[in-house]
Amino acid sequence: MKGVRKLFPEEFCRRYEQFIPDFDLFLEAMLTPLPKVFRINTLKAEPEEVMPLLAELDPEPLSYLRFAYTVKNGRGLGRQLAHFLGLIYIQEAASMIPPVVLDPQPGDKVLDLAAAPGSKTTQMAALMRNRGLIIANDLSLERLRGLIGNVDRMGCLNVVVCRADGIVLGRKLAASCDRVLVDAPCSSEGTIRKTEEALRRWSVRGIANFSRVQKGLICAGYQALRPGGQMVYSTCTIAPEENEAVVAYLLKRFPEAEILPVELDNFVMRPALTEWEGDTFPSAIRRCRRILPQDNNTEAFFVALIRKPDDVTS
């Protein structure tokens, strides 16, 4: 394993072997290509209508995600007619977890605070059966183009796309949203399996910079919740500064916020940390979940489910 460790920054290994007991398996998984996964777009078709179009790829259903499938050879998946018609959406499996945990209902008002390129936005539109409203926001004009294209291709009729600073938008929508998704911009350590660029640009300084932005976004997302509303905070990274520390910051700003358990059948998730590098986090944060690549053959992810109590006035 020494040879594998040399492929990662020394500081990366020092940090994460502290709380990943099977660290060697973790590194091996991080260097293994991701399986190709897609989900059926139920806004346009049912599985029995789509599967014949993909028969040559021999899709196999994922036990832990409804309407999600994996293919052994996914090189041609993006060239399939089903993809161009918006009958399927190619999306990494762990990326599908946050919308499932958030569980938006038909008729809800949902804020997707950092929505581009639209993977989770379009997934939520399907969960809501195109009923209600999704405000899909992103600050990047370039990324918005991809978001708009995906929303259109997938036939999402309940999505309004906007470009705004997420922190400002969340405050403007104070106490008005049933559900909020903060899939925050992050250092993307969990995507190293997909792109070596994430490893090349890795730095502790970058983690600190993302953490500052994330703290603003999670607080703005919470402010946008109506009393009784729920928010998911998620990242595709491993750094505690971008995960547990961000949720702890929210609890410091809004002590009444409730951290709810994150659960998913047939899928391995690990409890969040309660301490890191001398900092201690509230015990409730242990209800958040870490997704590691060696457990389910996915990217790494972090998911927190947060509720605003009914008796909060704003």
Topology readout:
Layout: H1 2-5, H2 10-16, H3 23-30, E1 36-40, H4 47-50, E2 60-61, E3 68-71, H5 81-84, E4 88-90, H6 97-102, E5 109-112, H7 119-127, E6 133-137, H8 141-153, E7 159-162, H9 166-172, E8 177-183, H10 197-200, H11 204-224, E9 225-235, H12 244-253, E10 258-260, E11 270-271, E12 275-276, E13 279-280, E14 289-291, H13 293-296, E15 301-307
Parallel strand pairs: 5-6, 5-8, 6-7, 8-9
Antiparallel strand pairs: 1-3, 1-4, 2-3, 9-15, 10-15, 11-14, 12-13, 14-15
Helix pairs in contact: 9-11, 11-12
GO molecular function: RNA binding; RNA methyltransferase activity; S-adenosylmethionine-dependent methyltransferase activity
Domain SAM-dependent MTase RsmB/NOP-type: 26-309
Protein name: RsmB/NOP family class I SAM-dependent RNA methyltransferase
Give an overview in words.
Belongs to the class I-like SAM-binding methyltransferase superfamily. RsmB/NOP family. The active site is at residue 236. Keywords: Cytoplasm, Methyltransferase, RNA-binding, S-adenosyl-L-methionine, Transferase. The chain has 314 residues and is an alpha/beta fold. The protein has a domain at 93-307: Rossmann fold (3-Layer(aba) Sandwich). It is 32% helix and 20% strand. The chain is built from 13 helices and 15 strands. The protein has helices at residues 2-5, 10-16, 23-30, 47-50, 81-84, 97-102, 119-127, 141-153, 166-172, 197-200, 204-224, 244-253, 293-296; strands spanning 36-40, 60-61, 68-71, 88-90, 109-112, 133-137, 159-162, 177-183, 225-235, 258-260, 270-271, 275-276, 279-280, 289-291, 301-307. The strands form 3 sheets. Strands 5, 6, 7, 8, 9, 10, 11, 14 and 15 form a 9-stranded mixed beta sheet that branches. Strands 2-3-1-4 form a 4-stranded antiparallel beta sheet. A hairpin with a 2-residue loop joins β12 (275-276) and β13 (279-280).
